[in-house]
Design goal:
Helices cover about 65% and strands about 0% of the residues. The protein has helices spanning about 1-20, 30-55, 65-75, 85-90, 90-100, 105-130, 145-160, 165-185, 190-210. The protein has 9 helices and no strands. Helix 1 packs antiparallel against helix 6 and helix 2 packs antiparallel against helix 9.
């Protein structure tokens, strides 16, 4: 089963890298600096996804990889579930769509829509195939964390749009908070959150590659 997860993740990363090549031209290998810049963009999210796959939690108990985070965020902070994460996950994306900048709303809307489709288009099949049992034993679609992916996707969109650190840092803090809350609420393992962050960041970066940058390509932005 782990081989299936790895294959799906590598397929997604490979598609992103392939698209980055096409975004320049077929002679991309002659433009070393541009090619290296694009492939570098994939290193962090691909690493996070790989770590998440590595920490896949077999069975209903926390494995060695997930135990520390479960102890810190669930057992040490034992208490009522904090359901605000169901809404908080969308905060970075709403901020991206709402806060004006160099990009007009039409471009932001298309990019956010593309990133959302990519995020959930990849995550939902993996959730079904992975079959990882949630910490609360309520279902077997724990891997990866969709809430975390959505939050990190929005935070990365803000960063890519060129906003200052005064906006992007709070957005990323919000995304990290969502991931921690998913563990506290006993809905996800640590590896789910790590992989979700990777998928969210990767989807945002990929969306920026596929949405046309030229204004004349789309009339309303």
């Amino acid at each position: 089963m782990r081989l299936i997860f790895t294959f799906l993740c590598l397929l997604f990363v490979g598609a992103a890298v392939a698209q980055s090549k096409r975004s320049f031209d077929f002679n991309v290998f002659k433009h070393d600096s541009k090619f290296k810049s694009c492939t570098k963009q994939m290193i962090l999210p691909a690493t996070l996804v790989t770590i998440g796959v590595y920490g896949y939690n077999h069975g209903s108990g926390a494995n060695a990889f997930n135990s520390p985070a479960k102890y810190i965020f669930k057992e040490t902070l034992e208490g009522e579930h904090i359901h605000i994460d169901d809404c908080l996950q969308y905060a970075p994306s709403i901020a991206y769509l709402s806060i004006g900048g160099k990009e007009k709303f039409g471009k932001r809307f298309l990019t956010c829509a593309a990133a959302s489709v990519l995020t959930w288009g990849v995550i939902m099949p993996i959730k079904t195939k992975a079959g990882e049992i949630r910490p609360d034993l309520q279902s077997d679609n724990s891997f990866p964390s969709g809430h975390t992916a959505t939050a990190f996707m929005g935070a990365e969109l803000l960063r890519l749009s060129g906003h200052s650190k005064k906006i992007t840092i709070p957005a990323y803090i919000t995304a990290v908070t969502v991931g921690c809350m998913r563990i506290h609420n006993n809905r996800h393992w640590f590896n789910d959150v790590i992989a979700g962050a990777g998928f969210g960041i990767l989807s945002a970066r990929f969306a920026y590659m596929v949405v046309p940058k030229e204004k004349h390509r789309i009339n309303f932005y």
